Structures are given as structure tokens and as C-alpha cells.
């Protein structure tokens, strides 16, 4: 319309100088640019919400507003199944081995480590502000962001912020929030989800009033466990079931954890400390079912929060110019593999999380199978905002619209360092009677491609796992030689033997465990830069058997609590410099 006016003007004006015409067109075009701004982004990040345990079937507003009106990315994974490392990866677009924020507390993680690593001056909200966005945040940002350190320094990058602070982050009925540069405020007696709903709507109003496009992130604590810093039992803080809003307390009374094949199985499964877990008795199972219902109930407040936000956007004229992205920082297990409630594992329950995206051009009611990860989210926000990707991004933008022919990958790099943390009243199963289980350090690759669906991991005690999820979706049969009760001997992967598949997976993991930027996105190119190998399927060609057979193996020298390179065995794979022909390697 504007351009049409400009052209008519051009045609109508007779005898005007070229400069006058140019000025006229310029002024019309720049007015046009003002009225159609860059898209807004509303980002909702829940805490510990599973995909595998079916939580998304219990949130009708989220289904109606985002899932049905947008795309469900059903193969979306986190790369570290723990809040703080996962969030820092999300805000920087980098794997935890590149942020080196690998834990929830110092010295290896938490807010102080984020600051020490320089990210407070160099992360997503700052980049978005530089690209013309107004940025707002409310809810949980990091762990170890506390009533004592929130001002030293303040978190940068937000035009408006109201953060939950430790040790009250998970106190559903006594949360403490801290707004902009003001002192912390206690909300004793109010439900944290009511508080965040008010704050989120307030920021949405501010954002809608602004001249610039906005990025608003809302990070409620539900369905994370409740932690009352005063309720210490046996000398330990207990992470108990989440507390729903009163009006949701009685919902789902007959709902129980899905009884999948890996739910409290008769045979032990997994490796390391998981394989030693006893089968759960009836009282533990009943408690876990109660814990599960409490999570679903606590999520109802989030469902209503999303409804309020979308309704407010609808009342403005900005809904059609807003991308809404809904996800969680990591997944959750309860009872699978005999595990007490918690995350920190590499199983599907822990690493798969919901991801729904709606917005301009995003197909409605669509289910997308592409493999996507949290490392891809910062690149995706850049894509939406029209900013060129950074070279230090370890991921790549998610294909949100059919016209966007994104570069895809088939792998997910999963990594973890330090303690497993067990939740719930039966959580005191650590060696010292606490809820912390040491030596939960592992590296894994999750691979989904044409004809294969695999999980391969190497633990710091050098135990290995290999699950073929196409035949074993619940990860009960470890195919790694010498570990399975079943003989994995006749199982084949893409027609090749287990040991040939492992030689490729291990070499891939060798690259991924220290990859940076493009090598995280195209890991096979590191191994075989001269050959056209882009997938496991390509790499499994018999002509490469010698090359992969000669690779050093991923292994650990000891179990450490952080990313200590000296503990982590060989770092560099063999690289084929001139293209692999098998005779080079015999
Ligand atoms: C938001 O912050 C950025 C960076 O400081 C600034 O340029 C912009 O004007 C601010 N927006 C508003 C509405 O104050
Ligand atoms: C609630 O939190 C505040 C800190 O913000 C604390 O001073 C107060 O003691 C807490 N109340 C209870 C009942 O724990
Ligand atoms: C739950 O189960 C009980 C016992 O079978 C039944 O009486 C009750 O109606 C069920 N509640 C719901 C909400 O389905
Ligand atoms: C069930 O197991 C829990 C956790 O090990 C234990 O504390 C409890 O006493 C057991 N209950 C029964 C009835 O055996
Ligand atoms: C954890 O690993 C360390 C170092 O590898 C080892 O010394 C220690 O015994 C292990 N602890 C447990 C509980 O397995
Ligand atoms: C990660 O941080 C820890 C703690 O500061 C440090 O000891 C370690 O060397 C760092 N790792 C790398 C690879 O820089």
C-alpha cells in the first residue's frame, strides 16, 4: 500500500527533482518500517517439565493457544539435564563444555560462575537489545542467584526484570522476587504462580507500550519440587512434591504415572548407581504417584498463566506479530528404572522436553520430527529477529517455517558432571544418607536418523550404554558388549554389527565432547573432512571400518565433579586428511 502510494507519487509528480522524489519515497518507506516492527518473542520456560511422562496432555490452554496454533517439535532435547547448566546453554547457544557452567552451585556452576565466565556482558538479552529489542524477564533465571549476591553484579541485559531468588526460589508459598535494581521482596503466603502471573502481565503491558519489538521471558517454578529452606529433615533440605494453587489441589485424583515397561521394572537397568537401585515397594510407588499428580496440579497454574498472556496479546494488536515459544529447562523421571523423582540422567525422560512454537508463518497443528536441542534456541531467536548467527553458536536455527530450509543435524550431545540429585521424601539414598549421589559424570550422544534411533554413553567409571530405541524405546536392554543380560550379538544397526556401530558412535562422541561452533554442528566433517560423510549411515560404510577401528576410545581417568580436562582421557580423534580408503589404515 505504502509502496503503491510512493509509486503513484512518482508518476504524478512532474518536474520535481530526483532528490525530492527520493526524499518523498524514503520518508514513506521509513514510516512504513515504524508501523511494521520486527516480530515480538514471548518465551515461556517451565522448570523440570517432562515430555515423556505425558504432562502436556494436562494443559488445555497451552494446547489450544500454542500447540494447536503452532508446531510441536517432538524430538526436542536438552543437552544437560540440570537447570543451571541447561539455562546457561540456552542463553548463550553453547554446550556446557563451552560455557563451563556445569553445575547449580560454585565452583562449577550457578550465577557466580556465569558472571565469572563473562556471560553477564555477553548473552542473549544483550544481543537482542543490540538488535533493537526491549527485553523483559520474570521468574527463575539461575541457581545460586540469591538474596545476598543479586546486586553483585545485577543481571544485565533486561529493560525490566523481576527475578526469583535463592534460597526462596522453590518456596511455592514464600517466594522472594527482586525487581530491577530494587531490594528483594518476600511474598509470604501468596502462591508463586499467582505472583509471577501478575509480574508477567505487567511486563507484557510495558512491552506492548514500547516503540520497539519485545522479548519477554517468563520462567515459572512449576512443576519443580517445593523446597522450604526451613524444613530440614535429617540435617538435609528435602525437595518435596510441588504445591498447586488451592483451586487445583483436588484434580486428577485417579491419575498415576504411566506404567511403561521401564516403570519400576523387575530387573535392574542402566549402569553405575542406577543399576544398584532396589525395586520400589508399594508405599514408595504410591508416594511417587502422588508426586506425579502434584506436578500435574502445579502445572495448572502455568496453563492459566499462558492463557492470561495470550489473551492479553490478543487484546493488543500484536498477537499475529508475536512468536510464542514454550519449553522447559530439563525433563524429569519418577519411578522409571526404579529411580526416585529427579533429573540429572541421560534417559529419555530427563533429556526430552516439550517445545511448542506458534507465530507468523509457523504451520498450525503441525508436528515436526527434526531433531532440535536447547543449543538451537538462541540461534532460532536470532533467526526470528533477523540477526546473523554468531560463530560461537554450537547449534543451528530450528526450522520453524516450511520456507526456512534450516541446516539440520541428527545428533544431540548430552553431557553431565558431578552429583545426581534425588528428590522426594525417600531421596536420602546417597552414600552419606543425603540426596546427592556422586560420580554421575557421563557423556552421551543421542542419534535419530533414517533407520536408527540410538543412545550411546560413556560414564566416568568407564561403563558404557548403548540402547537401540527403535526396538527398545524404554532403554532397558544395554547392547554394549559384555553388559547385556540378553545377547546383543545378533542385533544389527543399519545392517552392521554392534561393534562396528560402536566404533562410529565413539568417534562421534570423541568429537562432540569438545566440539565448538561448526564442529558441533558438522561433527563427521572433523573425522572425514574429505569424504562426504554426514550421518551415521554414511560413516558405517565397510570402507571406513579400518579408519574407525583405529580410533582412540572415549574414556575417563577418574570421576570429577566439574569439567576437568585431565580427568577426561583422550581428547582428539584420528582425522583422515586425504580421504579414507581402507587400505590406508591396514
Ligand atoms: C531498553 O534497553 C536498551 C539498552 O539499554 C535501550 O537502548 C532501550 O532504549 C531500552 N528501551 C526502553 C523502552 O527503555
Ligand atoms: C519468607 O521469606 C522471607 C525472606 O524473603 C523470610 O524472612 C521469612 O522468614 C520467610 N518466612 C517463612 C515462614 O519461612
Ligand atoms: C476415581 O476413582 C474412584 C474409585 O474408582 C471413583 O469413585 C471416582 O469417581 C474417580 N474419580 C474421577 C475424577 O474419575
Ligand atoms: C518402602 O521403602 C522405603 C524406602 O526404602 C522404606 O523407607 C519403607 O520403610 C518401605 N516400606 C515398607 C512397607 O516396606
Ligand atoms: C567416585 O569416583 C572416585 C574417583 O573416580 C572414586 O575414588 C570413588 O570411589 C567413587 N565414589 C563412589 C561412591 O563410587
Ligand atoms: C572449568 O571450570 C573449573 C572450575 O573453575 C576449572 O577447574 C576447569 O579447569 C575449567 N575447565 C576448562 C576446560 O576450562
From TrEMBL:
InterPro entries: Alkaline_phosphatase_core_sf, Arylsulfatase, Sulfatase_CS, Sulfatase_N. Residues 39-387 form the Sulfatase N-terminal domain. Residues 1-15 form the signal peptide. Keywords: Glycoprotein, Hydrolase, Signal. The keyword Glycoprotein applies. One of its GO terms (biological process) is phenol-containing compound metabolic process. GO terms for molecular function: arylsulfatase activity; glycosaminoglycan binding; N-acetylglucosamine-6-sulfatase activity. The keyword Mitochondrion does not apply. Its EC number is 3.1.6.1. Belongs to the sulfatase family. This is Arylsulfatase. It comes from Penicillium arizonense.
Amino acid at each position: 500500500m505504502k509502496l503503491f502510494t510512493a509509486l503513484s507519487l512518482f508518476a504524478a509528480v512532474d518536474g520535481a527533482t530526483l532528490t525530492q522524489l527520493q526524499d518523498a519515497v524514503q520518508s514513506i518507506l521509513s514510516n512504513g518500517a515504524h508501523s511494521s516492527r520486527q516480530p515480538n518473542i514471548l518465551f515461556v520456560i517451565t522448570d523440570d517439565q517432562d515430555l515423556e511422562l505425558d504432562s502436556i496432555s494436562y494443559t488445555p490452554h497451552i494446547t489450544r493457544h500454542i500447540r494447536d496454533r503452532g508446531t510441536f517439535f517432538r524430538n526436542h532435547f536438552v543437552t544437560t539435564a540440570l537447570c543451571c547448566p541447561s539455562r546457561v546453554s540456552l542463553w548463550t547457544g553453547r554446550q556446557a563444555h563451552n560455557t563451563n557452567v556445569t553445575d547449580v552451585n560454585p565452583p562449577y556452576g550457578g550465577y557466580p560462575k556465569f558472571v565469572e565466565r563473562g556471560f553477564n556482558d555477553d548473552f542473549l538479552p544483550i544481543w537482542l537489545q543490540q538488535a533493537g529489542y526491549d527485553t523483559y524477564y520474570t521468574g527463575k533465571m539461575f541457581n545460586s542467584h540469591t538474596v545476598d549476591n543479586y546486586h553483585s553484579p545485577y543481571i544485565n541485559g533486561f529493560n525490566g526484570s523481576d527475578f526469583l531468588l535463592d534460597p526462596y526460589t522453590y518456596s511455592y508459598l514464600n517466594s522472594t522476587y527482586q525487581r530491577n535494581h530494587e531490594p528483594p521482596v518476600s511474598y509470604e503466603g501468596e502462591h508463586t504462580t499467582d505472583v509471577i502471573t501478575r509480574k508477567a502481565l505487567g511486563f507484557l503491558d510495558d512491552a506492548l507500550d514500547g516503540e520497539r519489538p519485545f522479548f519477554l521471558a517468563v520462567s515459572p517454578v512449576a512443576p519443580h519440587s517445593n523446597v522450604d529452606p526451613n524444613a530440614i529433615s535429617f540435617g538435609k533440605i528435602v525437595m518435596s512434591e510441588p504445591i498447586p494453587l488451592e483451586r487445583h489441589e483436588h484434580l486428577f485424583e485417579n491419575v498415576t504415572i504411566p506404567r511403561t515397561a521401564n516403570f519400576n521394572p523387575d530387573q535392574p537397568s542402566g549402569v553405575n548407581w542406577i543399576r544398584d537401585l532396589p525395586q520400589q515397594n508399594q508405599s514408595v510407588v504410591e508416594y511417587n504417584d502422588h508426586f506425579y499428580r502434584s506436578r500435574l496440579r502445579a502445572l495448572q497454574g502455568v496453563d492459566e498463566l499462558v492463557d492470561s498472556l495470550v489473551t492479553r496479546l490478543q487484546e493488543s494488536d500484536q498477537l499475529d506479530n508475536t512468536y510464542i515459544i514454550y519449553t522447559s529447562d530439563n525433563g524429569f523421571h519418577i519411578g522409571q528404572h526404579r529411580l526416585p523423582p529427579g533429573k540429572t540422567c541421560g534417559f529419555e525422560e530427563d533429556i526430552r522436553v516439550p517445545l511448542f512454537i506458534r507465530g507468523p508463518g509457523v504451520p498450525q497443528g503441525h508436528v515436526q520430527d527434526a531433531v532440535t536441542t536447547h543449543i538451537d534456541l538462541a540461534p532460532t531467536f536470532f533467526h526470528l529477529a533477523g540477526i546473523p548467527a554468531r560463530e560461537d553458536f554450537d547449534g543451528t536455527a530450528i526450522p520453524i517455517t516450511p520456507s526456512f530450509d534450516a541446516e539440520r543435524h541428527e545428533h544431540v550431545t548430552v553431557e553431565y558432571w558431578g552429583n545426581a540429585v534425588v528428590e522426594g521424601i525417600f531421596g536420602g539414598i546417597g552414600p552419606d544418607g543425603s540426596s546427592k549421589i556422586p560420580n554421575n559424570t557421563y557423556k552421551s550422544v543421542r542419534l535419530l536418523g533414517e533407520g536408527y534411533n540410538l543412545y550411546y554413553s560413556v560414564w566416568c567409571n568407564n561403563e558404557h550404554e548403548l540402547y537401540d530405541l527403535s526396538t527398545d524405546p524404554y532403554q532397558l536392554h544395554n547392547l554394549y558388549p559384555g553388559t547385556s543380560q540378553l545377547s546383543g550379538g545378533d542385533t544389527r544397526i543399519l545392517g552392521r554389527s554392534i561393534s562396528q556401530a560402536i566404533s562410529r558412535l565413539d568417534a562421534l562422541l570423541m568429537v562432540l565432547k569438545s566440539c565448538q561452533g561448526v564442529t558441533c554442528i558438522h561433527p563427521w566433517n572433523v573425522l572425514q573432512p574429505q569424504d562426504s560423510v554426514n550421518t551415521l549411515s554414511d560413516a558405517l560404510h565397510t570402507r571406513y571400518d579400518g579408519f574407525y577401528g583405529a580410533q582412540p576410545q572415549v574414556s575417563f581417568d577418574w570421576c570429577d565433579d566439574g569439567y576437568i580436562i585431565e580427568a577426561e582421557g583422550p581428547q582428539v580423534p584420528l582425522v583422515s586428511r586425504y580421504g579414507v580408503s581402507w587400505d590406508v589404515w591396514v
